[in-house]
Amino acid sequence: MISHDELHTLIHHQPQEGRKVLSVYLNVDQGRASNLNREFEVPLRNMLREIENGIGDAYEREEFRDCAARVKQYVESYRPAGRTLVLFAEPAAGLFWARGLRTAIENQARWLHRPFVRPFLEAREKHPRYAVVLTDRGKARIVSVCMGEIEHETALEAQEDVRHFDASGKDQMGSQMRFQRSAQEHAKHHLKNVANKVKELHGKQPFDRLILAGTSRTLAELERLLPEPLKQRVACTASLPVEASRKAVLAEVARVDERFERENEMTLTEELLTAAAKNGLATTGVEDTVKATVEGRVRTLVYPRGLHVPAKTCTAVPTNGGAAVRLTDYLGEGIEPEQNLLDLLVENAAREGGTVEVLHGEAGSRLKESGAGIGAFLRY
Q1: H-helix or E-strand containing 211?
Q2: Which domains, ranges and CATH numbers included, belong to the chain?
Q3: Which residues share a beta bridge with 88?
Q4: Containing H/E element for 139?
Q5: Residue 49 has pLDDT above 90, yes or no
Q6: Which of 122, 280, 322, 368 is least surrounded by CB atoms within 10 angstroms?
Q7: What is the pTM of this model?
Q8: How distant, in Å, are the alpha carbons of 139, 172, 174, 188, 242 from that of 165?
Q9: How far apart are CA 30 and CA 38, in angstroms?
Q10: ∠ CA(372), CA(378), CA(380), 5° rounding?
């Protein structure tokens, strides 16, 4: 897992002048036959060799070799513990950073003037943070899940016993009714406590979607107790018991996430195209999206999976005053003609607090056909 602070540091990292950073995303998933017996090292060597063969300057080639050696040395001793290994390396005693992720990212390597963080940003937006509440009338677990990993969980238990008791003696019926009322009151108090803990979690670590798990009667009462903003984040209810394994919780999140994303991508695309057509707070097309990015107006950048926008196709954008300015003045030095401009758009949107939305299938095709393949929802 890459923390928010670590990501912020990588996005804003500036190498020494003239130097580059080697960024590597290596899929090490042992569920893939092609990665067994350390075969994941083969594509790493191939990617590094391809980059080195494309470097003409002798001094730069030596710096790249230094970074590549550090990466290969780390990978040779790495024992796969997740699905993707991410590494960033600078020459000599510069940056060296490595993390394993449970999220699958395809093999990629870049030699650029800054860390190549777009794959991680895309993966993070593809897998938003979930809170899963598993509860019954007496116990509860609140689990925070992000990018296929459980970040933390909290266990709660009612302060009083909420089971139904059988009484004995002459006042059996009256005793049973008192016990039942008492149990109901304690159960309600317990659910109020659960709702408060969910609210507290969202205040400390905001989540995007909420899954409620338990019996229908208990969940109906819990949802009623949630504040309205959290009710709007309820993605679904599930029948998982409080004692459900972590594996079962993660599987439920993955199932809900997949369904939710596919159902909403087309809706999001249509909203973007409609808002852009009405000159609302949205835009489409490469030129207008670049312009909005350099002006810091992008709230959510939207594009189909696999989009490639060569920098040479958009070398300048108009300013508010009408004059043309170089992209390098706004998006960073060292932009090469064949470089994917999308990398810079994503990173700059992230620096300004924006998000990304990667479309798949029909939604991606729709944006390509009607929105020139890229667009953005704007702040103003």
Answers
A1: strand 209-213
A2: 4-116 (3.30.960.10), 130-244 (3.30.420.60), 262-378 (3.30.1330.30)
A3: 23, 97
A4: strand 139-146
A5: yes
A6: 322
A7: 0.64
A8: 18, 10, 12, 17, 22
A9: 9
A10: 135
